[in-house]
Amino acid sequence: MAAFGRYLDVLDALREKCPWDKKQTNESLRPNTIEETFELCDALIKDDKHEICKELGDVLLHICFYAKIGEEQGDFDIADVCNRSVDKLIFRHPHVYHPSQIGEPDPKPLPYVPENQQDETSVTDEFATAETATQVLDNWEQIKQREKDGNKTVLSGVPKSLPSLIKAFRIQEKACHVGFDWEKREEVWAKVHEELDELQAELDKENHEKSEQELGDFLFSIINAARLYKLNPDNALEHANQKFIRRFNYVESRSAELGKSMKDMTLRELDDLWNEAKNLEKSNTK
After folding, report:
1. DSSP secondary-structure letter at 25?
2. Contacts of 94 (CB under 8 A, 6+ apart)
3. Can you give the pTM of this predicted structure?
4. Which pLDDT value is given to residue 144?
């Protein structure tokens, strides 16, 4: 708590005395927030503990900065941000907390109980048991739709600005938590093969517009398969990106050592260097 108080004191001082901090707005900070979030994601995928700690601090700065702006405008402050988040967490975990605990130690009306829900214990009664992580997530999606300012539909909680791959995964997750899913995960492969066949058919016809649509359906089905097998497709693709970068950089470096330009090398020569990179990685992981 002392560290967090010091953090907020420094932000207050910067907001008052630093010309750059003084002029910032929600709109001007937004691009930097996106950049800082992606830098944190890079550190997380690399599992670089030092960088994770540093980037978490940068993201925290932005959270506190937006709260500071909200306080200046008389809308909310960092305490409101924390309390609102805690209230939400308690309400969405009725298997751990009773809804009457929201707002303690200063009791107040439950902000997340719908207007037409007179019995504040009904959420607890209905979702009181959750013995697995899957049950918790299933309950979570249904409870969200009962909140005063919660999602009105199952998919309305998926941000429109999410990257397409992550958005597809979240859409599928939310649908599955209300029972819209295959009974057995193996059944997804028939859909994957069906979408691949439809993509190939349109590619053979050289129909660009329909090929793009079918490519989207195929990718959506692959993401669905990843979800069913408990694989995160965004993490998987980023690992593949990093692997390609490492191997390509090796090929580029080795070709320079050989005094050759990559553009002047044959595909066979490039492939040989690529295999060198693969074998080197394998030997380093043993």
Report:
1. -
2. 123, 124, 126, 127, 128, 139, 143
3. 0.64
4. 63
